[in-house]
């Protein structure tokens, strides 16, 4: 009889652990996904987006990424692919032509603003002329007090 009581106690403990694990997993998966700011060409904390389709850095239209397809968007990292358009600015940016290349994007560097998690780091990799390039942007607070954040 004592053996039955021990087995029953072990089953109860294991059931409690299973319920606790399920509760913790549900709570963590219920957290909203991190957003990314500034992909719509704006600066500041407005227009946070999850899985945006395009990036427009707002730099006079000289660099943007279109047709983004996100293969992953987790609580820590996002990865996607798109077409990078960069103005050659030759002889000047108004007269330059756009060079297109496939790009791989990785978002990381989770930070929190007003209780909302966001990505603060963007790594972009692309090929041009047979060479692979990689550039890392950071969502950075404005240089002057009170100025809005932007990608640098």
Element string (H = helix, E = strand): HEEEEEEE
Proportion in helices: 10-25%
Calculate the terminal CA-CA distance, rounded to whole Å: 71 Å
Give me the side-by-side strand order of the main sheet: 1-2-3-4-5-6-7
Mean pLDDT: 84
Cα-atom radius of gyration: 23 Å
- Overall geometry comes to globular
* Record field, number of beta strands: 7
Q: In what range is the share of β-strand residues? A: 35-45%
- Work out the count of structural domains: 2
Largest sheet: 7 strands, antiparallel
**SS-derived structural category:** alpha+beta
Could you list the spans in which at least 5 consecutive residues all have pLDDT below 50?
Answer: 17-27
Specify the number of helices.
1
Structure explained in plain terms:
This protein is of the alpha+beta class and 152 residues long. It is 18% helix and 42% strand. It has one helix at 2-29, and strands spanning 55-56, 63-73, 78-87, 98-113, 116-128, 131-140, 150-151. The protein has a 7-stranded antiparallel sheet with strand order 1-2-3-4-5-6-7, with no helix packed on it. The radius of gyration is 23 Å and the shape is globular.
Describe what is shown at a glance.
Helix content is 18%, strand content 42%.
Annotate the secondary structure layout.
Layout: H1 2-29, E1 55-56, E2 63-73, E3 78-87, E4 98-113, E5 116-128, E6 131-140, E7 150-151
Descriptive key words:
152 residues, alpha+beta, 7-stranded antiparallel β-sheet, 1 helix, globular
């Amino acid at each position: 009889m004592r053996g039955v009581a021990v087995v029953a106690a072990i089953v109860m403990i294991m059931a409690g652990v299973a319920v606790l694990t399920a509760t913790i997993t549900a709570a963590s998966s219920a957290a909203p996904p991190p957003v990314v700011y500034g992909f719509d060409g704006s600066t500041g904390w407005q227009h946070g987006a999850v899985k945006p389709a395009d990036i427009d850095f707002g730099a006079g239209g000289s660099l943007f990424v279109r047709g983004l397809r996100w293969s992953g968007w987790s609580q820590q990292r996002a990865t996607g692919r798109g077409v990078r358009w960069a103005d050659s600015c030759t002889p000047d940016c108004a007269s330059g032509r756009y060079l297109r290349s496939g790009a791989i994007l990785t978002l990381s560097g989770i930070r929190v603003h007003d209780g909302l998690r966001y990505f603060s780091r963007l790594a972009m990799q692309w090929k041009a002329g047979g060479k692979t390039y990689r550039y890392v942007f950071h969502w950075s607070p404005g240089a002057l007090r009170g100025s809005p954040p932007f990608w640098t």
